Amino acid sequence: MTHIDEKPFKCDLCDSVFSRKITLQRHMRTHTGDKPFKCDLCDAAFSQKSSLKYHVRTHTGEKPFKCDLCDAAFSGKGALKYHTMTHTGEKPFKCDICEAALSSKIALERHVMTHTGEKPFHCDMCDAAFSQKGKIKYHMMTHTGEKPFKCDLCEGAFSTKRGLKYHVMNHTGETSAKCDLCDAAFSRKSALKHHVMTHTGEKPFKCDMCDAAFSRKSALKYHVLHHTGTKIFKCDMCDVAFSRKLSLERHVMTHTGEKPFKCDLCDAAFSQKTALKYHVMTHTGEKPFKCGLCDAAFITNSNLKGHIMTHTGEKPFKCDLCGTALTTKSALERHVMTHTGEKPFHCDVCDAAFSQKSSLKYHVMIHTGEKPFKCDLCDTGFSRKHYLERHVMNHTR
Q: pTM above the 0.85 mark?
């Protein structure tokens, strides 16, 4: 029998001491990695019997601990305890480095790592490191492609339970977070927070290597990769590598030809949702990005930025072969092809080849006879918009 505060059981591998032998035995498993308690429903294993007990409830859905103040229920008593603090506002764990206060000890430990920069959990497949064990678990799924959380309403699958939860809201139309500055509504509070920044212009995440600033931490993370040159997402079909998984997924569609985003107003289809969004504006005539220096308006912000350079005279993209300066990166890429003679866009009907995809598109109309631009004053049709504009002038003279 031990007295209060007496801790006679010492760990031989670290400085920890315990009042009970069984507690020391449990602690030793953190050093040895021993996990004797196995789940019968999956491959999970645990160092403590109580951890297995709580884990099994993720399979059964059992949540015996109910909140007296709302309808929330939890599989563990500890989770209920910390949830109750969201009602009472109690935050007993204080940070010694700043004034932050947290509701749980583990939340405080995670918070302190934001000061120290400590990231003890390392990925075995890349250089990524994390401050939380749970985050490395979900990161690993970007390598394995595992998405265990399935949507019952469509074929969607997700790597996290939270991701599935917010996805389901897209089906139900549920929106719990509303913007006070416009009519926008969101299923996630964090999404509303980032949306409000589009009104305020706030960009709290600053790059240490240049003057760039971002409204989202994730955007800063991917921006930094442009400085470091890190590209961990590699294409299995060619040698191209990307800094973002989403960029890789879009790239793979150039190999597969997949275009899942269909236009409801015509037969056009696109590999990216944003491309469809901008395409629809060609039907509606919507041009939300206005020039402050003239009456011009554009479908995309990038087009507006390029236009503004025609007022300022700015041409930041220089050709290494002749010194020519251009307003956009894409314009520079097209210009370089005039030196190299590269024409990567080939016609399937004849031997013609072009340096620009748009030129191939218009060329194909010679074969198909397609003339999508119609004159409202007569029945004449044209393959290009500027041909139609010239034609209309003949009516107005």
A: no
